[in-house]
Amino acid sequence: DKRIGMKSTPTWKEMKPSTRFGQMPIFKTTDGREMTQSKAIARYLARSTMVDGALLYPSDPWAAFQVDEYVEALEDARGLFVSSFSIQDQEAKMAARKALFATDGSGKIFEAFKKIDQCVAMSDAADGHMVGGKLTLADCWCFCLMNQFRSGFLDGVPRDGWLEELPHLSKVVANTAAHPAIKAYYSQMAQGNSKYEPHASG
User: Fold this and answer.
1) What is the phi/psi pair of residue 123, to 5°?
2) How far apart are CA 116 and CA 70, in angstroms?
3) What is the pTM of this model?
4) Cβ–Cβ contacts within 10 Å for residue 122, how many?
5) Whether 143 contacts 177, CB under 8 Å
6) Which residues, in sequence order, are bridge partners of residue 36?
7) pLDDT digits (tens, 9 = 90+) for 17-43
């Protein structure tokens, strides 16, 4: 796990020309193969990762579709945040980002999450999971995205007051955080960076 920071050697500017698409993340397999594109990497790993006796990416086509559908829906919601980066005035940017998570019907990201929450409520998934009653890539994606928004990593995003209004996604986040391996990893990460505390606590 190598992270590229402001003082990294080599710098990202130096590394970028040698990468496949000039983007991160980059995943290298033990045999030296290099992979890019977040969702492609995630699916590759999920297809070969067993958790509690089940693959994170189901072999059943219908279950796999449901996982993909939730991942894409979550990414659509995340995409609504992108335009805020172009707002030059800092006060206006903070206000715009806060508005995206408003729970009064006007918050575009919250409303997108609310639709996903409702879909989970109507599915046959067990409580605390999105697909099939087992931990899948969809749960992991939801866990990471919700915590990215509520961790303070992105300034202007309310850290509370919105996830609590999404009962089924809240359960997915808490259930995923409680998995021993995930809890151990993020508890260690939180010791060095407080922004990982939501990941560790669920």
Assistant:
1) -85, 175
2) 7
3) 0.89
4) 9
5) yes
6) 26
7) 888 788 888 888 888 888 889 999 999
